[in-house]
Automatic annotation (TrEMBL):
InterPro entries: Gal_Oxase/kelch_b-propeller, GK/Ca_channel_bsu, Guanylate_kin-like_dom, Guanylate_kinase, Guanylate_kinase_CS, Kelch-typ_b-propeller, P-loop_NTPase. Belongs to the guanylate kinase family. NCBIfam families: guanyl_kin. It comes from the Eukaryota. It comes from Malus baccata (Siberian crab apple). It is an enzyme of class 2 (transferase). The keyword Methyltransferase does not apply. It catalyses: GMP + ATP = GDP + ADP. Pfam families: Guanylate_kin (PF00625). PANTHER family: GUANYLATE KINASE, GUANYLATE KINASE-RELATED. One of its GO terms (cellular component) is cytosol. Residues 167-349 form the Guanylate kinase-like domain. This is guanylate kinase. CDD domains: GMPK (cd00071).
């Protein structure tokens, strides 16, 4: 239902919203629509028709969808550490404690929730910092469905919401000793604020100059195997007799830092990443000859004779696969190092004049401590419930979820936040 008041259109939604402040109530979104384009009013009206049911009581929010009710917050084994999740199967009346995957949000002083599409619930945490306010509970995404099959249990997965998108990661593969690490070091040295290295996990022993957490996370095989089972890795492979793997977190940390992620992984790993949901650029580095490869490996002096022979044997297969598998977007020949480095820069769109891209200043928008959510298509209106702020459109925030990317077990990127005023100005073409 909505009322039109000349000069000041007041909209009252009949959609359920939630807070942790007791029973859910009918949302009364009241703001000046003096300059709002007519279609926005239509959109708002349409949004109210999106049926779902969200209720809150005693710090728990329940979101009913289909024959399931997801109860978020409240009592659970881990509730001191993270926001708990339970599911009520309405057809059987039974409670289910699902396997909860992904990075879990720390408990907050209440939260609000809204169902997005048919596969995830957006949770906004009261009084949280701008980088910790939005979380997604995936209930039926492709990842969740896959994990249900693998684990044979009910599964939900958390993913942290992040503003903006990151550039496509760059996967660099090639036989051992071809010069991948050398090229990556050159790139990171020239563009330190543009690129970040995905620090892999490995069960091999550290070399003399290698630092744990910088070159690799050196890890015992049994621990890595457990972490693989827990779904913490984007890809892994057994390479030259040791386990190597890229954790989801390793890639996300680079993107969190606003940098483009570089992965130095073998061909099997590249194939896995290609098959994953991570969109990346794939580059294969070839040696000028097997003789030169052997010379470089021996000159590096980091492997035993037995290891050198094993790596050379594997190199033949890797080069064959690299050239014929269709995994790679680009081939580089590392004969002359400087020439090869220039080619790498060219295909990454860098030339001698480019310096680090200036980071765009992201406007910090303060979220109200106590708020409700209303969904209108791909926009979520965050409405302050602090009485003196409730009427002012400047205190309403619009969260745009139209360009979401990624998701559990990593971050959900692509959130966009505007104040209601700047959002309405954008619709009517006003610039300040
Ligand atoms: N174009 C080149 N010409 C001569 N030597 C090179 C060239 N590129 C790299 N090297 C040398 O070859 C050796 C192997 O290089 P690097 O360690 O970068 O290989 P890699 O592909 O990262 O190997 P791995 O997969 O085993 O980590 C190093 O000693 C490096 O200095
Ligand atoms: N599939 C993966 N391969 C990886 C990863 N990290 C490194 N590697 C590859 O292993 C070999 C050997 O490396 P080294 O440091 O022991 O010489 C090399 O081809 C790397 O590209 C990973 O996370 N996943």
């Amino acid at each position: 239902m909505y009322y039109l008041d000349p000069g000041n259109i007041e909209l009252l939604s009949s959609i359920s919203i939630s807070t942790d402040q007791g029973e859910s109530r009918v949302a009364g979104i009241a703001f000046s629509m003096g300059e709002a384009p007519a279609f926005f009013v239509d959109e708002l009206q349409k949004g109210f028709a999106n049926g779902f049911d969200v209720k809150s009581k005693g710090g728990e929010t329940s979101v009913a969808y289909g024959n399931r009710t997801y109860v978020i917050g409240g009592a659970c084994e881990e509730s001191a550490l993270s926001i708990g999740v339970r599911i009520l199967d309405q057809s059987s009346g039974e409670w289910i404690n699902p396997t909860v995957l992904g990075t879990k949000p720390k408990p907050s002083k209440g939260h609000s929730a809204v169902l997005l599409g048919e596969d995830r619930i957006l949770i906004t945490k009261n009084g949280s910092s701008a980088d910790d306010f939005a979380w997604f509970l995936e209930v039926d995404t492709q990842y969740v469905r896959q994990q249900k099959k693998i684990l044979g249990t009910e599964v939900v997965a958390w993913s942290k919401g992040v503003r903006g998108c990151s550039e496509k990661p760059v996967v660099i593969s090639g036989p051992s000793g071809v010069g991948k690490g050398t090229l990556i070091s050159m790139l990171m040295k020239e563009y330190p604020s543009m690129f970040g290295f995905s620090v892999s996990h490995t069960t091999r022993a550290a070399r003399a100059m290698e630092k744990d957490g910088v070159h690799y996370h050196f890890i015992e095989r049994s621990i890595m195997e457990k972490e693989l089972e827990d779904g913490k890795f984007l890809e892994f492979a057994s390479v030259h007799g040791n386990l190597y793997g890229t954790s989801v977190e390793a890639v996300e940390l680079v993107a969190d830092d606003g940098k483009r992620c570089i992965l130095d992984i073998d061909v099997q790993g590249a194939r896995s990443v290609r098959a994953s949901s991570l969109e990346a650029i794939f580059i294969f580095v070839c040696p000028p000859s097997m003789e030169e490869l052997e010379k470089r490996l021996r000159a590096r002096g980091t492997e035993t004779e037995e290891q050198v022979l094993k790596r050379l044997r594997n190199a033949k297969t890797e080069i064959d696969q690299g050239q014929s598998s269709g995994i790679f977007d680009h081939m580089l020949y590392n004969d002359n190092l400087e020439d090869c480095y220039q080619s790498l820069k060219e295909l990454l769109g860098l030339d001698g004049t480019v310096t680090a891209a200036p980071k765009s200043a992201t406007k910090v928008v303060d979220l109200p401590m106590d708020h409700s959510l209303t969904k209108i298509d791909n926009k979520i209106i965050i409405n302050s419930r602090t009485p003196e702020l409730e009427k002012a459109s400047t205190n309403m925030i619009v969260l745009d979820v139209s360009a979401l990317k990624g998701g559990a077990p990593g971050r959900t990127r692509g959130l966009d936040i505007h104040t209601m005023d700047s959002f309405l100005d954008g619709l009517s073409g006003i610039t300040h």
